[in-house]
Design brief:
- The protein is mainly beta.
- It folds into five domains: about 10-70, Complement Module, domain 1, CATH 2.10.70; about 85-135, Ribbon (Complement Module, domain 1); about 135-195, Complement Module, domain 1 (Ribbon), CATH 2.10.70; about 270-315, Complement Module, domain 1 (Ribbon), CATH 2.10.70; about 315-424, Complement Module, domain 1, CATH 2.10.70.10.
- The protein has a four-stranded antiparallel beta sheet with strand order 2-4-6-7. The chain has a four-stranded antiparallel beta sheet with strand order 9-10-12-13, with no helix packed on it. The chain has a four-stranded antiparallel beta sheet with strand order 16-18-20-21, with no helix packed on it.
- It is rod-shaped and about 220 Å long.
- It comes from Limosa lapponica baueri.
- Keywords: Disulfide bond, Glycoprotein, Repeat, Signal, Sushi.
Length: about 425
């Protein structure tokens, strides 16, 4: 272990601004009255008239001022346009200068610089910053439009005014200003959907009259199919609603044309022939031979899917019971007779002659041959009353004969009525 000799100093102090000259750096003992010299470190310069040495005193301590060197000074850095520096005490080696920009301007670069050694000289470590005018992002509001304040670029204190598109409601302020920090203040508004779009068009349907062109939540739209059309069988009305997400509850299917069922009439021919029978279709019917139409020959498909007038029917042809002939007596009388059915009859013999006693019901509903009773020759009828035409009959006898004749005729009429009643 090495001990310092009596009357020696410790190694000389290490100074911030100066360092031992080379010839003293290797020394290990420093006797009393010995001296060491210092040289200023880079970035420092010797203080005028200040000694650059220390001496070892008798007390074993170093004597002399340690303030030998002072920091070198960097040149004045200047101030950025639209900004200023925050003044330090001195622009000396190791010092730092801070910068700030005026209101409405933004610092581009470092906010501070430092005085440093470069290539043996003191200088600033970087250029001073610049102050640029604060700008804001071009304002954009989705589903909105700019009403006022449009510019190619937006800078501090520029103001814009917005409005929302049709069917959108504004949430926030319609006016915003570019602030010193480059943000819009107050924040740009939101345009939020507040109405469903126009209700969809539906083929062959009409929308109920609308009160306006805005459709808030819960709005109900009614569709009516045009005449002769339907959404589904029997359904001609459909409703849709504006939902909370501003969509319609559904898009109705088109109204389809009403179609009537195929008309079927037994024993009938239909014209025109077709596969389907849409609303408004007309058909005409005619019966086969031996059948007669009951009802209307023409029918039309209506909006309710029914035929109108109702479809007819084809009924078998029937011949009516002969009428209008008091002298005709029918065997086994009926109200009507079928085609090819034979009618048997006879005529009264008193004062009449018997014609053909049979007649057949034809396909057109007539009797062939017609059942008739022919009168006898008129002269025979006269013979029966010849006593009335004799000359020289007294008036009183003639009156009696006429009364007898009247009674005879009444008896004949009564007999005829009884026979008719007997045949039906």
């Amino acid at each position: 272990m090495e001990f310092l000799s009596v009357g020696a100093c410790d190694p000389p102090p290490r100074l911030l601004s100066a360092e031992l000259k080379e010839q003293y750096k290797g020394m290990t003992t420093f006797p009393v009255n010995s001296k060491v010299e210092y040289a200023c470190r880079p970035g420092y310069k010797k203080i005028f008239n200040a000694p650059n040495s220390l001496s070892c005193g008798r007390s074993g301590t170093w004597q002399g001022s340690q303030d030998m060197c002072t920091p070198k000074q960097c040149p004045y850095p200047g101030e950025p346009a639209n900004g200023r520096l925050i003044l330090a005490e001195k622009f000396v080696f190791g010092s730092t200068v801070n910068f700030t920009c005026n209101t409405g301007f933004r610092l581009v670069g470092s906010s501070h610089i430092q005085c440093v050694i470069r290539n043996g000289a003191v200088t600033w470590d970087r250029d001073i910053p610049i102050c640029e005018l604060v700008d804001c992002e071009p304002p954009s509001v989705e589903n909105g439009k700019l009403l006022n304040g449009y510019r190619a670029e937006y800078t501090y204190r520029d103001t814009v005014v917005f409005d929302c598109n049709f069917r959108y409601t504004m949430n926030g302020s319609d006016t915003s200003t570019c602030s010193r920090n480059g943000l819009w203040d107050p924040p740009l508004p939101l345009c939020q959907l507040s109405s469903c779009d126009d209700p969809p068009d539906v083929p062959n349907a009409v929308k109920a009259k609308l009160a306006g062109n805005l459709f808030p939540v819960e709005t109900v739209i009614t569709y009516e199919c045009r005449e002769g059309h339907q959404f589904s069988p029997g359904e001609t009305t459909r409703h849709i609603k504006c939902l909370p997400d501003f969509t319609w509850s559904e898009t109705p299917q088109p109204c389809e044309m009403v179609r009537c069922p195929k008309p079927v009439v037994e024993r009938a021919r239909m014209t025109p022939q077709r596969l389907t029978f849409p609303y408004g279709a007309d058909v005409r019917f005619s019966c086969e031979e031996g059948f007669v139409l009951r009802g209307d020959a023409e029918s039309r498909c209506l909006a309710d899917g029914a035929w109108h007038p109702p479809l007819p029917s084809c009924q078998p042809v029937q011949c009516p019971k002969p009428s209008g002939q008091e002298d005709l007596m029918i065997r086994y009388p009926k109200l009507s007779y079928s085609v090819n059915e034979t009618l048997r009859f006879q005529c009264k013999r008193d004062g009449h002659s018997l014609g053909n006693s049979e007649s057949t019901c034809s396909v057109n509903g007539t009797w062939i041959p017609p059942p008739t009773c022919e009168k006898r020759d008129i002269c025979e009828k006269i013979l029966r009353g010849r006593e009335l035409f004799q000359c020289g009959i007294p008036l009183t006898e003639l009156k009696t004969l006429l009364e007898i004749r009247k009674l005879y005729l009444e008896i004949q009429k009564l007999e005829r009525e009884l026979r008719v009643a007997a045949y039906g």
